[in-house]
Amino acid sequence: MKTTDLIVIGGGLAGFMAAAVAASRKQKVTVLTYGSGSLPLASGAIDIFNAKSPEIAIKNLPAHHPYKKIGSKNIDAAAKFLLDITAQANLPYVGKLSALLPIVTAVGTLKYSALVPESMDASKLVDKKKIFVASIKGLKDFYSPMIVDNLKKYFPNKSFEVAKLDLNLLGGRDITCMDAAQLLTDNEQPLANELKALNATADDAIIIPPIFGVMGNFSRSAVQMQIKAEIIETTCLPPSPPGIRLQRAFIKYLQNSGVRVFENTKVIRGVTDGQKVTGVVVENAVREKVFHARKVILASGGFYSGGITMRDFDNPIEPIFNLPVFFTTGAENWSNQQLFSDKPQGFSMTGIITNDNLNPVDKNGSVLFENLHVVGANLGGCDKIFERSAGGIAISSAYKAATI
Amino acid sequence: MEKTTVVVIGGGATGLGILRDLSMRGVKAMLLEKNDLVNGASSRYHGLLHSGGRYAVKDQEAAKECIIENQIMRKIGKSCVEPCGGMFTRLDIDDETYEEAWVKGCADSGIEATPITLDEAFRLEPRLSRKHVKSAYLVPDAAVDGFRMAWQLIDSSKRYGGELKTYTEVVGFDSVNGELRGMKVRNQFTGEEYEIACDIAVNAAGGWAGFVGKLAGVEIGVQPDKGTLIAFNQRIVNHVVNRLHKSSDGDIFVPHGSITILGTSSMSVPDPEDTSTSREEVESLIKIGEQTFEDLRDFRILRTFAGSRPLYIPPGGAVGRSASRGFAIVDHEQDGLKGFFTIVGGKFTTYRLMAEKMCNQICAKLGNKTPCRTAEEPLVEEVPQADKDRAKKFFPSYGTNLAATRLGVDRFKKVVERLENDPESRELICECENVTRAEVEEICKDDTSFIVNDVRRRTRIGMGTCQGNFCALRAAAIFADMGVESTAKDSLTRMKEFLQGRWKGIRPVLLGRTLRETEMTRSIYELSMNLKGGAPQ
């Protein structure tokens, strides 16, 4: 029977982060993933908290909040680790925890985030005189006129120009940002030529959909070195190339660190011995198989990824270890009347409650398994979308769990 | 001042039927609707074209009207009707003596009810409960699309000179010596008020008929009766499946395209605007539905919705399930207001007959002797096969037929031209319902499109599996570019309003896979798009 140091269940941001941190500390790690996590859906930026200074806002959170259990030391360390490994992967991120950076969204609003891919950092717009918003002929989901209309409200004194680039994408099936990014990888010259033709100067910026390839910053560098104006990517509808770049950077890091990643491997239950988890059982095409480990990190996600399911009202389930799941009771508290509400959504607080070591606890606060740690979206007690804390909680809980 | 002969108040099936009928008889008529068309019970219902079977025991007259109108509708509104047929099934817990009365009632009303063996029933509807179903009959029920029929009624009316104003609310009436002269109306978006002169006004406001009556100073016995329905993400049934028992809640399943609608409940409410739904109502509908289809809970629920039936309550009459589903016409000359009529009650299936009877009275007043032709002439012409063939080069044939029936001859032709000339217009805005950019652009430009939800009702964007996750951004962007200046430019508000509209129906059924979709919606629009706007404080 082979026993590894750590099994990570889940290949989203939290799972990959936990595996990467543990591997960087010379642990033997196995990652079991099923599905692809929520990175392909995400903007690519890491939101920490929706406040002018996330650092200060987090200090003032109530004691039951996951961030309080994680602790600011781990949040700092996680941010630093992420900045390091993305820099190593030539996918540079910028930002800090004491202030947020703006990103231009695909609808033309600004979104504010703590850790931002350099290609999306819109703080550079401030001293530009003219902003080009360039859509791509045949590329879906990027509507320059709407983006300009809405962006003007943030920058009333700048001049704007709608541009349309032709990369010869038209004629076949519908093209998404992801398709364009894939086509552009190692084939950047057509984009550079079209951008050159805009005759934008160093006083200008050009906003484009996120199509600078699917691996690191290579495509962007190849184009930017030929263009005087700053080129800035927006967010987009999924699948999102910036999220996928981050996912791939992690996968590469894990491969180089000797982490075994099993894809399409569904963990169906845990093997436990009293208060210890000794392994997990996975289901594959022909038979069940058991993986053994000294420690397990549960990063299986929330409702979106199926880490928590709910077939009947008032009965959410964590399907692998059957851990108790916290949820908001009462139909009237389950969701708010407005989808885009000014308060947290009850259903979104659903999740597992832990102690300060991120071990799952029962109603009375007693630890259920001392070598099982819960991280990321399946931590309960806060609405991570409302707070814009999903990314921050994912990386910092993963960091803590991996270093305990 | 604008002038017309007859003003029809209310853009539901009845009002639209009257506008068409009058226009075809050569009477100058205008329809006013305070919201978008079919915003009340004419779209917030099963979409069931009754065979009359449901009324065969309780109300023979209604049953007879249904079967006749059912056959007319199949003829004149071919592309709005899905002739899926209906099945009545009696369960072990249902009263056997009711079955005998029902068989006799159908025979007496002229409804063909064919008994089938249980083996045959399970072959036709494999998901039926083998434990509970004890007998089954086939009847000529069908599914009918209320939205599509409304737009076709308008197209038909306009061809004969009928006029339409949506988002225009009547706020007062003008009469001299007990004789109606006209009314004051308000534009819902601009707030502008103005007057329209007319000789006759018809109050066809459905659940709102009481309010309209009050404005004119007459009392009308109408009781809004809320019915809640559930839309499932799959086609659970092939036929309309009815419970063979005394009409009750949650006993009809209607297949529509790729979804199934289960309904309905019956609850008196003070306000027809109350289209709220609750977890309890959903739970109670599912509990009843499960008796016929045991695995009902395993199907994903898309959303829930509710509408108010306008039940006519004659002085001292019954309410709720025992109230008549029949209709009434009131000439308010008896109340001292000449030229003002109310038509209330009835049901979607018999809208045409109601309109015919109403128009007969109006025409008698006007001295117009032209006979009604609404039962003979199709609502719209058929889209030529040649145009469909041209369209098939650009989108799947499944989508082609749907788009052709949605758009009608002229608009479809324009859309096909767009597809041919502008390759970018071929992209799909709504992958769930197969709607191209060309079609969305065409409808955005239409003079009845004021918000993205109006475009949704006409194209079906956002009505499918993803409930608007992807098309909200696309549709709002196209609308900002093509729609009316006054509302379209505010693209962020339009996008929020569109998603909020979907949210209303999702909240009471927020469990299972719907939770997943919702987290995706929030992740896209709250996180990636910061649709709420604003900077951190």
Would you write up a description of this structure?
The complex is a heterodimer of chains A (404) and B (537). Chain A has two domains: 3-92 and 245-403, FAD/NAD(P)-binding domain, CATH 3.50.50.60; 98-236, Rossmann fold. In chain A, strand 4 (101-104) and strand 5 form a beta hairpin. Chain A has helices spanning 13-24, 54-59, 66-70, 72-88, 144-151, 177-184, 189-196, 218-224, 241-256, 331-334, 384-387, 390-403; strands spanning 3-9, 29-32, 93-95, 101-104, 110-113, 115-117, 130-136, 159-165, 204-208, 230-233, 260-262, 266-273, 276-283, 288-298, 372-374. In chain A, helix 1 packs parallel to helix 12 (390-403) and helix 4 (72-88) crosses helix 12. Chain A has 404 residues and is an alpha/beta fold. Chain B is α+β, with helices and mostly antiparallel strands. Chain B has three domains: 2-40 and 147-221 and 325-366, FAD/NAD(P)-binding domain (3-Layer(bba) Sandwich); 82-142 and 225-307, D-Amino Acid Oxidase, subunit A, domain 2 (D-Amino Acid Oxidase, Chain A, domain 2), CATH 3.30.9.10; 385-528. Chain B is 37% helix and 22% strand. Chain B contains 16 helices and 24 strands. Chain B has helices spanning 13-24, 60-76, 96-109, 118-124, 146-159, 209-216, 279-292, 351-366, 385-392, 397-421, 437-444, 452-459, 471-482, 485-488, 491-506, 513-528, and strands spanning 2-3, 6-9, 29-32, 48-49, 81-82, 86-91, 114-116, 133-139, 142-144, 163-165, 168-176, 179-187, 193-197, 200-203, 222-232, 240-243, 252-256, 259-263, 267-268, 301-312, 327-331, 340-345, 428-430, 435-436. In chain B, strand 12 (179-187) and strand 13 form a beta hairpin. In chain B, helix 1 (13-24) crosses helix 8 and helix 11 packs across helix 12. The model of chain B has no long low-confidence stretch (mean pLDDT 93). The chains are: A alpha/beta (404), B alpha+beta (537).
